[in-house]
Amino acid sequence: MNNFEYFAPTKVVFGKGTEKETGRLAKEFGARKVLVHYGTGSVVRSGLLDRVCDSLKEQGLPYILLGGAQPNPRLGLAREGIRICREEGVDFLLAVGGGSVLDSAKCIGYGAANEGDVWDFYCRKRKAEACLPIGCVLTIAATGSEMSDSSVITNEDGMIKRGYSSDYGRCRFAVMNPELTYTLPDWQTMSGCTDILMHTMERYFTKTPDTMLMDGMSEALMRTVIQNAKILHENPTDYDARAQVMWAGSLAHNGLLGCGNETDWASHQLEHELSGMFDVTHGAGLAAVWPSWARYVLSEKPARFAQFAVNVMGVTGDCTDPVKTALEGIREMERFFHEIGMPVNIHELGYDLTDEQIKELAYKCSFFGTRTIGGFKVLDQEDMVRIYEAAR
Amino acid sequence: MNNFEYFAPTKVVFGKGTEKETGRLAKEFGARKVLVHYGTGSVVRSGLLDRVCDSLKEQGLPYILLGGAQPNPRLGLAREGIRICREEGVDFLLAVGGGSVLDSAKCIGYGAANEGDVWDFYCRKRKAEACLPIGCVLTIAATGSEMSDSSVITNEDGMIKRGYSSDYGRCRFAVMNPELTYTLPDWQTMSGCTDILMHTMERYFTKTPDTMLMDGMSEALMRTVIQNAKILHENPTDYDARAQVMWAGSLAHNGLLGCGNETDWASHQLEHELSGMFDVTHGAGLAAVWPSWARYVLSEKPARFAQFAVNVMGVTGDCTDPVKTALEGIREMERFFHEIGMPVNIHELGYDLTDEQIKELAYKCSFFGTRTIGGFKVLDQEDMVRIYEAAR
Asked: ipTM of this model?
């Protein structure tokens, strides 16, 4: 086990009816003037936004509304939010929505609490030294942004998608009512389940030895998400399945399961370029990339993939041939992705990449040839080309 | 899954050499004048106290030393600490030691930050509204006090042991270097491992349905502690086994694994009276009580104990007879306790209880006949008598 730091201070308020607690929580965490940030119509149509605003009113908290955050949230809207915060003296951000709204709120929080251009942080030119405090009411289990330190923003200028991570951006509180996720389209729910699995797998596929506790907890989480995703694919209003998946989503990405592991993140970075270029749903993009990544890197440590196959995918292990067991685990994962309607390659995702596009994706993903990605196996620009080719 | 709140804001800094970070962390969390609280000689003899104080000096942080905290920490010393904090203007507590030192520090923190008598909180007469901020350097994996909201104090007047839980008392940071636990006597290490297991089991034995994620994570943690306790019983300086157990100790009691479960805590409460009367080691006391509790309550939900038997203790399940499987799991746990030198009844713990003593224990444990204990099965004073009788 490697040395590590773990810091996940978000207060989670989980269960039926918890959105009514939002105003009380905002006040508890010091809010005096709130920017309520949300996405497109569904939180308005469902009446959730009204219920949340009513709970702010009950606490006497003034607020300003800013809707319009979209999947793969844009820098332009965040800049608008930053302007409003500065002009109106907003001191607390309340995100009502999913990962995109939350990531947009984090970007607003960094921009409003620091001088200069917020895009600098996402380009790694400098580090944020503060963030406006953020609370959230979560409406989809997926990105784990409600407890994580990370946010991802797309700059419309070149459609460049970049992530930034900082403890300053972690939510002060997260309200999670699984019932709020009942009305999600199946595609969104299944993409969310895939994202949750992948947050765990990016940490689980490691060459760090002696990780028994984190291995076992990660495997339990993955088995839980796989079983409950299948239930939700058939019955989207199964409360307990929604609850298991929603809590798993937070634990998959709050930093817990990577403690002491060298982590990977190559699949995420390969996918970020895809969804920057084509605006695909993040989870589905991950499903389209992962099998090809897995087969490309497997030989680094076949035993790790064999452990995954046996402990997560229920494959009967063949001790004499870990590679065979490992490959069967990857095939089982592909069968699961198909069972819940996810793609296992980029063609199934709906795009047929040209050679030129693959070169462009790898060029962007390698930060114009300046970085490698991956921890399980370090991948350079040429490796990225090969994985995109295998995945197309 | 029930509704729940989860809040574990402690920043964990884990691994080799991390005690050198103590001063930096204290400063990061706002310390200006520190009370360094510790126990008896070992942290002095090992040089740990000097290294920690050096890191405070490097940050220019003035500090006052208060040693003398003992196992089952006493109210008297905490009152002395409260007096010092008030007179000297201490604004940060640094606990260097194990659960007893930490619990003593929490008691000091509550007393120094609130008016009136600190014992009121432990008697449940009123609730603390603040606590001095606390950091810790942990020297034993056991109580989980480094991330938990709980503390346990013994009032010398009547030798009454009482716990108090509040989010205010959670540590701001916890420095955890597994190497610091190498020199612990085997008895302490194994009692610690037992305590960690029991923190998990108190949450795991629940009748709440649909707890798949927490079940799987708890089972992984218990398997990890059982396997690594056996390793440490043979080789106390195995770093990775120390590390697995230490991290498990924090996760077993930071609130995570009970999320959405109705919890139990009867074994802990039965043991508190034992160690109040006899000053036994907490973990060993739990091992002496648990098997009798388990057999007494098993019929409430045999399937739960059968699941434990199969998924944690490696028993081959007999689907036609869950009670048989359940009982075999309890016997396997007793075999494990014996293998690591723990008792499985109060006689083996070193005490032969008289009928009068059993009556007194049950009388105190029921708060003089005014409360029941337990969630898996609610136990009244008469039930407590029967479990103590079975355990003697």
From this structure: 0.96
